[in-house]
Amino acid sequence: MKKIHVGFLLSYDYLKLKIAIPLVYEYADRIFIAQDENFTTWNGNKFQVEDDFFLWLKQIDTKNKIELYKDNFYIPELTAIQNDTRERHMLSMKMGIGNWLIQIDSDEYIPDFKGFVNQLRKYDHYLDNPKKTPVQISGFHVDIYKYLDDGLLYVTNTCKVLLATNYPNYKLARQSYERVIYVNTLVFHESLARTEEELQFKLKNWGHNHELNTEFLTKWKSASKDNYKEIKNVFYLNPKQWKSLGYLPTKDFFEVNKNIKKIDIQQITPLYLFFKNFGQWFKYKFTKPKKQNLNFEDYIK
């Protein structure tokens, strides 16, 4: 108990795990990779995984930390986002309540995972009775909007990313609507930083496929080093959530992380964290948690 357990979902963008897994390997006690036994996405489409990837997993797993968890994660009666939420619930149950249950998407990279674990350990007392004191631990996304030939475009405002929980009563993807504790951890998110073909495939198969705004793809295609300052409101759901873009002449997110205070991006200061966490404490001191709107036990064999 009270271990650092990290879970990943294996799907069509599985090659990105070759970046994400090594970043957490040293400081995770166990790593679980959820794979649909039929290689089916949440939307019911098929994907392929080359055998070389599984060979790579064995080669890097020098301390026998990695477990491949195979199950049926596609239920036709459920929507894509419900299948998404269900898989995350099943994965966390496999990881084991009583441990820190960290879920990282394949296109999310944490350069300072050691620092995240050190911050997480300050809250180990929430593992004593998880059901009674459920919490979510959030870092902050630095969203990479688009790779260019000589650098990248990024979103200038950071946003929360729910990374860990002590009690996985998920209601929408990783969101359980419990109290959030914010920590100063940056997560570089490659959600949109793909080829156009890869992006089109993702948009058809992920959990938010029914929520896309109609102008998103047009703006993404046109964005460049020359016009990024004029392109506004670029988020794929509610456009105003990502208000503006910045440009960096590098594609190395380790370099970005080291120089984050020099970059035109929302800074995560101690005062900012204090008010975010005080607001969450106050809110959940007087708020009842939302009930689960889908009983996943009905869909788990």
Please provide a brief summary of the model.
The protein has 301 residues and is α/β, with parallel strands linked by helices.
Percentage of residues in helical conformation? 25-40%
Portion in strands: 15-25%
Structural class: alpha/beta
The CATH architecture is Alpha-Beta Complex
What is CATH's topology name? Spore Coat Polysaccharide Biosynthesis Protein SpsA, Chain A
Nearest-integer average pLDDT: 90
What is the 3D form?
globular
Our count of domains comes out at 1
Largest sheet: 10 strands, mixed
Note the total helix count: 8
Q: Taking Cα atoms only, what radius of gyration do you get, to the nearest Å?
A: 19 Å
> How do the helices and strands follow one another from N- to C-terminus?
EHEHEHEEHEEEEHHEHH
CATH class: Alpha Beta
Distance between termini?
26 Å
Given as residue ranges, the uncertain stretches (5+ residues, pLDDT < 50) are none
The tally of strands reads 10
Q: What features would you describe in this structure?
A:
With 301 residues, the protein is α/β, with parallel strands linked by helices. It has helices spanning 17-25, 51-60, 80-95, 113-120, 196-205, 216-222, 253-258, 270-285, and strands at residues 4-10, 30-36, 66-71, 100-103, 108-109, 135-148, 151-155, 159-165, 179-189, 245-248. The chain has a single domain (4-288), classed as Alpha-Beta Complex (Spore Coat Polysaccharide Biosynthesis Protein SpsA, Chain A). The protein has eight helices and ten strands. Strands 1, 2, 3, 4, 5, 6, 7, 8, 9 and 10 form a ten-stranded mixed beta sheet that branches. The model has no long low-confidence stretch (mean pLDDT 90). β6 and β7 (151-155) form a beta hairpin.
